[in-house]
Specification:
The chain is mainly β. The protein contains 2 helices and 14 strands; from the N terminus they run ββαββββββββαββββ. The radius of gyration is 14 Å and the shape is globular. It is found in: Cytoplasm. Pfam families: PTS_EIIA_1 (PF00358).
Length: about 150
């Protein structure tokens, strides 16, 4: 079983409340979302593993069980073309849970007209393979968000 932890400090809101129909409908996969605190911060790895996809606005870490976890920093933030995001690792790097992956500023994302809400998604999973999904309340970076069978 894999425990997926929060890449950010903020408030858990659940995927259904993400202002994007693809994430809200769990079309990418099941999981939850974080409405981050509005200050410059570092998004950290939610699991130990290998960075298999890395963009300024999103990254995927695959753990030793082959579970891929997507962290998407804001909604429609691909349209910012990397502005305001700083990559701290490289694709192919091995990371440990809690290691900083991307530095960004949710307040700047919001000022640019985008939602800073961050889906954290279990890729190629089914909703019934996740347990203890946190969908409300305050969370700190590194707190458990869900378990994955």
């Amino acid at each position: 079983m894999t425990t997926v932890t929060s890449p950010l400090t903020g408030r858990a809101i659940g995927l259904a409340d993400v202002p994007d129909p693809v994430f809200a409908g769990a079309m990418v996969g099941p999981g939850t979302a974080i409405d981050p605190v509005r200050e410059p911060s570092e998004a950290i790895a939610p699991v130990d593993g290998i960075v298999v996809s890395l963009h300024p606005h999103a990254f995927v870490v695959v753990d030793s069980d082959g579970h891929g976890v997507l962290t998407h920093l804001g909604i429609d933030t691909v349209q910012l073309n990397g502005e305001g995001f700083e990559l701290l690792v490289s694709k192919g790097d091995t990371v440990t849970r809690g290691q900083a992956v991307v530095r960004w500023n949710p307040a700047a994302v919001e000022a640019a007209g985008k939602s800073p809400v961050c889906p954290v998604v279990a890729l190629e999973a089914t909703a019934d393979s996740l347990g203890a999904v946190v969908e409300s309340g305050e969370v700190a970076a590194g707190d458990a968000l869900f378990s994955w069978q």
